[in-house]
Amino acid sequence: MEVFLFYLFAVVAVAAALGMIFGRNAAHAVLLMVVNFSMLAMLYLLLGAPFLAMVQIIVYAGAILVLFLFVVMLMGQDPGPLWEQMKLQRPLALLLAIAMIALLVPVVSGRNILGAQFGDPVRPFSSDPHALAEGLFGGYVLPLETIAIILLTAMIGAVVLAKRDAYRTKREELLNLDEV
Amino acid sequence: MEPLSLAPITTTHYLLLSAVLFSLGTMGVLLRRSALIVFLSIELMLNAVNLSFVALARQVGGIDGQVVVFFVMTIAAAEVAVGLALIVALYRTLGTTDIDRASELKG
After folding, report:
1. CA–CA distance from B90 to each of A71, A124, A156, B13, B72 (Å)?
2. Buried b / exposed e along A143-164 (16+ C-beta atoms within 10 A)
3. How far is the C-alpha of A136 from the C-alpha of B91, rounded, in Å?
């Protein structure tokens, strides 16, 4: 059962990613990414991380992609520009993707990464929110506070960037006043 | 190759899927000219790495991998907020999101 579910989620995720990369419509691309992220959330469930699966759906599919959709709505539809500028860009990019996969496959198929061999049975552990909270507020409390500061910075930055027109108008006003 | 059989799903399967998704994201970043699609491909790459973190957390048996995934998701949210504000500002200035047109600093 797990085998079937894994392949189902994996194939749909890869298909959605391909559809996003080769699609023409920005809104379709965002919706295909919703599918992709939902499949990843299901894979997290298979991997025994239920809290992360829910956080994935809430944060990624529910907040980040909604932001993307807002921007797509704001900007209207791109008139479908040509993809590549260089003559050989598309074959080269495909070659790069194939080379990346070819280089990564022997690395992840290796038997002794991180001291644990991949043939070993996995070690299940309690991954409920309690255990995650113990990790977050235990050993990782400093990165947690840093991330809070990063979020604050991002909020301020987004507001500043969005209010740019008002700033420019005010500056022009002041300059005109100087000329008089 | 062993992982491609119908054997029980090991960590290697998840890492292979993560590698494929990461490479697809890279291809998207290199190929597309719309700033939005490039940004979406970057998010795809981040998610691929998240998947490999969770898979290895299960393999090693510690919660650290999932804590890192939590951090990556938070940072991705912050990055998307700022990045989308930048894209909107770019669109207001240039009139298009074609990244090849954003070449003011070009030699």
Report:
1. 12, 47, 18, 40, 26
2. bbeebeebeeebeebbeebeee
3. 38
List pLDDT tens digits, range B24-54.
Answer: 999 889 888 888 999 999 999 999 999 999 9
| A-proximal residues of B, 5-64, CB under 8 Å | 6-28, 30-34, 36-37, 39-41, 43-44, 47, 50-52, 54-64
* Dihedral angle, C-alpha B98, B99, B101, B107, nearest 10 °: -170
Residue B48, min C-alpha distance to chain A (Å): 9
Dist CA A145 CA A127 (whole Å): 22
pLDDT tens column, A67-103 = 999 999 888 766 555 555 566 777 887 888 888 888 8
Q: Shortest CB distance from A21 goes to which of B32, B89, B91?
A: B32
For residues B28 and B37, what is the distance between their CA atoms, to the nearest angstrom? Answer: 7
ipTM of the complex: 0.89
Q: Which residues of chain A lie closer than 8 angstroms to B43, CB-CB?
A: 33, 60, 64
Of A18-22, A106-110, A155-159, the range with the lowest mean pLDDT is A106-110
